[in-house]
Amino acid sequence: MFGWGKKKLENRRIETLSAISGERADVEAMAQRPRSASDALDSVLLEAVLKRLAEIEAKAREATNVDDLDDLEDDAEKQGEFSAYFCPVTDVHTEGQIVLDQIEGWGIPTTPIKRLRELLDRKLKDADSNEAAARGALRSLFGERNAWGEYVDDYEDTMWSLAWRLFAMTLVLLVTATLSFHLAVRFSPLLISGLLCAGAAGSCVSVMAKMPALDVCLKGELDAYQRRVLSRIGVGVIASLIGSGLLAWLPVSVQNQTFADALIACATGRATGTAILTVVALPMILGFSERTLTSFEQRVFGGSNNSYRG
Hints:
By secondary structure, the protein is mostly helical. It contains 11 helices and 2 strands. It has a two-stranded antiparallel ribbon with strand order 1-2. β1 and β2 form a beta hairpin. It starts with a helix and ends in a 9-residue tail after the last helix.
C-alpha cells in the first residue's frame, strides 16, 4: 500500500475507533442512570451489546481498507442504538424530545421531523404503561439521528468539495477565455473557444451562487444534484454561445463599440484590454443566466416535484 493510502487508512481507523468508544460510553452512561426499583436494567442485553462492541473494535484494529472501517462504524452505531433499552422509564419521553430537537436543530426539512413527532411521540409519552413500545420508539429515534447525522456530514462534504471545484474551474476557464481571445489573431477558432469558456465560467458562478440549502435538499437527492450540475453548466454554455451570436448581430453599442467590434478586434490583433474584458464579461453574464432559463423551462413545461431551489 502506498504511503498516502496507508495514512488515509490509519486516519480513518482512528476516527472509527473513536466512534466505537463513543458508542460504548453512551451505552454505559445510559445504563448507569438512576432508576426505580421496579425498573430493572436488562443486564443480559447490556452484556451482549458491550461484547459486540468489543468485537467490532477488535475488527477495526485489524481492518485493511477504508470500506471495512466504514461498515464497522455503522455496526457500532447500530449497537449504540440499543442504549434506548437501558434508558430509565421516567427519562424516555424527555430523551426522545431531546433527540427530535437535536435533529431539528441541524436544519433538517420540517416534514420528516413532523412525521416523526406524530408517529413516535404518543409511544414515548406512554412509557409508564408500555415500556417496550416506548423504548422501541426511542431506539427508532436514535436510528433516525444516526441516519440524518450521516446525511448532514455527506451534505457538508459534498457541497464544500463541489464549491471548491467550481471555484477552481471558474478561475481556469477565465484565464483560458482571456488567452483564447488574445491569441485569436493567430487562430480564429479560438474566438469560439473563448466564448465557450467564458460562458462556462458564468455558469459555474451561477451554480455556486445558488447551491441547495440543507433544508431543501432531501435525503436521496444529493447524488442527483451533483449530476444536475453538469447539465446546468451545459445549458449556460449553450445559452452564452447563442446570446453572443445575437449580440454580435444586433447593432447595440456601448461607448461607440459593439460586441461584434470587440470580437473583430480580437480576431485582427487590435484588441485592447477593454475589448477583451467585454468579450469575456458578456458571455459570462449570459452563462450566469442559465438559472433564469431553467426556471423559465420549469414554468412553461413543468418540473419535477422534487426540483431544487436553484
